[in-house]
Inverse folding.
């Protein structure tokens, strides 16, 4: 509106200026003896015909009139172009350039208007927070061009299946918001099931199939009491909390917000804040659990396991904070801390003349993707026999990007051993083993736990051992709780054993005492044999 008023003022000013000039010329002609001037002019310019002179003089108003009308026409055309440009700017400001959907700013403006009108008209609304699961893996492995192609297809799929009443927007990389009116809650549950099923599919882009699933949080606005009707901010927060609940409960599902979810969300928020401080204050510690030779029960290695010395809750195991650390992007900092601690303790044992077992350290997916990972290894000149690198089975070889593959291959070229941890939790494939060729597998404790009483479990362990042996891969059995466990696993062909039967994870000082005692026991046994 302001732009149009400015354009009209400009047009009026230019038209007025033209009229003033025309009036000034008329006044000039009226103030002089025109015929006298023409006569004098003609005497000095006898070569000009009077008809030409008069024609030129009387044509001047016509020329000015034509100029005025042409200028008015140009101004009108210019105003039209300005209005088109202004409309284009407004459209771009309100639209997501990739998908063509409304962007965050436009959606937030529209939803406030709808909610305000809905409260007056008693219209119920549901807000869906749609977040694609593990979309970052697609972006990391195949690049943003492929990621954008997948997102565009997802947006087109959603837009084509929703009615005109629905408001859909893309608010960030892989997050969408949907506002939908409804009459009863069963409609929302039905729509939630439909959207989860709709987005549980493979999307083809550039000849590659990309698996997509989604987690959806839903917040309902069905209470019209003035102090309970959810405003825009409260509705957004509730949908966001419900979406995180869907992810925590296994992904590929939807959750409808319930007040109890807020307590869990606030607890996660507090945990995130405390974790960030813990990294800064170096509140983590390295605990060590020995690995034993399955035949001789000698210490041949140790796994470094992170613990968080919480200032109020005491020592916390990884299950209490690792997932939060990954979501915060600080898992690489924890990895580096454990890497430094493993080297420090091994050098300390070596300097003291104690047993110096190789120490296994975990590598997160984020650390593997870092181009600085190999630079760190090379700078400290660590011996290959000092460290073993473990990657979780959840980080399957098929999901690794090019940098991760390069780092793993470079580690193998330099002589470092790589293990797959938690094998049997359901993610790794035989194909990944053939391609990756790790030094050893660590069988998950959930597979080893029932072998004492279950014949089928023993057969399963035996098949894993036979497969690994055929591929030239050593096998470590985790979760060895009793001597009977240890004997059965050794008979099944496991090379190394790890579990509470031998030792629990222990802090540095206790670990050193354990090694010294074990060394003394081995020396005594050797003397008795001699």
């Amino acid at each position: 509106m302001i732009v149009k008023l400015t354009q009209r003022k400009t047009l009026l000013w230019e038209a007025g200026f033209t009229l003033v000039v025309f009036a000034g010329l008329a006044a000039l002609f009226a103030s002089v003896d025109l015929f006298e001037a023409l006569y004098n002019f003609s005497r000095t310019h006898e070569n000009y015909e009077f008809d030409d002179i008069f024609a030129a003089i009387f044509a001047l108003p016509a020329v000015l009139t034509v100029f005025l009308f042409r200028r008015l026409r140009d101004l009108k055309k210019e105003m039209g172009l300005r209005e088109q440009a202004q409309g284009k700017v407004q459209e771009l400001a309100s639209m997501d350039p990739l998908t063509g959907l409304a962007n965050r700013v436009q959606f937030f403006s529209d939803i406030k208007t709808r909610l305000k009108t809905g409260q007056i008209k008693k219209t119920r609304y549901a807000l869906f927070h749609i977040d694609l699961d593990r979309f970052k893996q697609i972006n990391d492995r195949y690049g943003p061009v492929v990621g954008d192609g997948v997102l565009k297809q997802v947006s087109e799929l959603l837009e084509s299946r929703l009615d005109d009443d629905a408001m859909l927007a893309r608010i960030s990389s892989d997050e969408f918001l949907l506002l939908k009116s409804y009459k009863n809650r069963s409609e929302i549950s039905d729509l939630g099931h439909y959207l989860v099923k709709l987005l549980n599919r493979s999307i083809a882009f550039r000849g590659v199939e990309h698996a997509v699933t989604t987690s959806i949080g839903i917040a309902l606005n069905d209470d019209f009491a003035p102090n309970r009707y959810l405003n825009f901010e409260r509705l957004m927060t509730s949908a966001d909390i419900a979406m995180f609940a869907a992810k925590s409960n296994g992904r590929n599902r939807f959750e409808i917000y319930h007040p109890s979810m807020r307590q869990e969300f606030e607890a996660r928020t507090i945990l995130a804040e405390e974790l960030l401080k813990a990294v800064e204050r170096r509140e983590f510690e390295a605990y060590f659990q020995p690995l034993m030779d399955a035949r001789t029960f000698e210490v041949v290695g140790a796994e470094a396991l992170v613990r968080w010395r919480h200032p109020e809750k005491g020592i916390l195991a990884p299950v209490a904070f690792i997932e939060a650390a990954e979501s915060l992007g600080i898992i690489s900092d924890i990895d580096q801390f454990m890497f430094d601690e493993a080297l420090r303790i091994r050098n300390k044992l070596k300097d003291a003349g104690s047993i110096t077992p190789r120490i296994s350290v975990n590598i997160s997916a984020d650390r593997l993707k870092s181009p600085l990972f190999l630079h760190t290894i090379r700078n400290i000149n660590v011996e290959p026999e000092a460290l073993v690198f473990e990657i979780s089975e959840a980080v399957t070889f098929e999901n690794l990007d090019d940098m991760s593959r390069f780092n793993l291959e470079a580690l193998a070229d330099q002589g470092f051993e790589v293990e797959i941890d938690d094998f049997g939790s359901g993610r790794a494939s035989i194909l990944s083993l053939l391609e990756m060729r790790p030094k050893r597998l660590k069988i998950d404790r959930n597979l080893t736990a029932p072998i004492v009483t279950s014949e089928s479990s023993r057969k399963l362990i035996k098949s894993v051992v036979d497969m690994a042996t055929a591929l030239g891969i050593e096998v470590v059995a985790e979760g060895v709780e009793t001597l009977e466990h240890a004997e059965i696993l050794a008979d099944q062909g496991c090379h190394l054993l790890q579990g509470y039967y031998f030792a629990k994870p222990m802090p540095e000082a206790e670990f050193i005492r354990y090694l010294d005692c074990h060394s003394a026991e081995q020396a005594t046994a050797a003397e008795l044999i001699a």
User: Anything to note?
Assistant: The first helix runs from residue 2 to 30. The chain is about 55% helix and 20% strand. The chain has a mean pLDDT of 83. The radius of gyration is 38 Å.
